[in-house]
Amino acid sequence: MRHSTAFLLTAGLALAGIAHAAEAPLTGCAAKRQALEARIEQARAHGNEAQVAGLQRALARVRTYCTDDGLRRDREAAVEKRRAEVREREAELREARAKGDAGKIAKREAKLAEARRELNAAEAQLQR
User: Fold this and answer.
1) Which H, E and C letters describe 55-76, residue by residue?
2) In this predicted model, what pLDDT tens digit does every residue of 53-62 receive, in sequence order?
3) Which of 25, 49, 79, 117 has its CA 20 to 30 A from that of 106?
4) Residue ranges, the chain, pLDDT below 70
């Protein structure tokens, strides 16, 4: 009885692990490959052979050159670039406020909002 209980417990944990692994979202280069493969299937479904060819070339490049470490470094660099842009836009807004020009303030606020959206998008890419 003890052996069968232990076996069932072990088998149940193994199956739970397999199910969890199947549900875990892909990240890094694997996610890029999966996204490209999905886009290739969509292009095929719509009969867009030129797009299929381009996506297949992109997929071949990802398979050849993409590494998770390299992808992470690129994405971290993109985040830092966007952070620098946000800092620059904040400085421009402070300057416009100091001058009191309502038109420039509104323009600088819009540019800052756009820079923050781009930063958020770059940060989201770090999780992929």
Assistant:
1) HHHHHHHHHHHCCHHHHHHHHH
2) 999 999 999 9
3) 79
4) 1-23
pLDDT at position 8 is: 47
CB 70 within 8 A of CB 28: no
3-state secondary structure of 52: helix
Q: What is the pLDDT of residue 26?
A: 86
Long-range contacts formed by 61-68: CB under 8 A, 24+ apart: 62/29, 62/32, 62/33, 62/36, 63/33, 66/28, 66/29, 66/32, 66/33, 67/29, 68/27, 68/28, 68/29
Q: Which amino acid is at 11?
A: A
Cα(97)–Cα(38) distance, integer angstroms: 48
- Find tokens 């009969």 and name the residue: 47
CA distance 55 to 39: 7
Whole-angstrom Cα distance, residue 93 to residue 55? 41
Give the pTM.
0.67
